[in-house]
Automatic annotation (TrEMBL):
Gene Ontology terms for molecular function: DNA binding
Protein name, UniProt field: YbaB/EbfC family nucleoid-associated protein
Keyword DNA-binding tagged: yes
Biased composition (Polar residues): 26-37
Biased composition (Low complexity): 1-16
HAMAP family (alphabetical): DNA_YbaB_EbfC
Pfam families: YbaB_DNA_bd (PF02575)
Segments for region (Disordered): 1-45
GO annotation, cellular component aspect: cytosol
Keywords: DNA-binding
Keyword Nucleotidyltransferase belongs to the record: no
Amino acid sequence: MRGMGNMGNMMKQMRQMQKKMEADQATLNAQTFTGTSPDDLVTATFTGDRKMTDLTIKPEAIDPDDPDMLADLVLAAVNNAL
């Protein structure tokens, strides 16, 4: 029966670790992370659970002759935030 006490302690430790992980995840989810493109023309903001909450594009980033540049700037800002 001695092994059962050990098992009980292990289960208790697992529950404590799970509660701590849940609390840590809630703390992370409440934080925001902001990333920018290298030239600061695009800014992206995310929550800790990776939901985008804001995307700011400065007018000078929009070049109708080069839409790929804007896409690259957005990707850079998003990747910088994540």
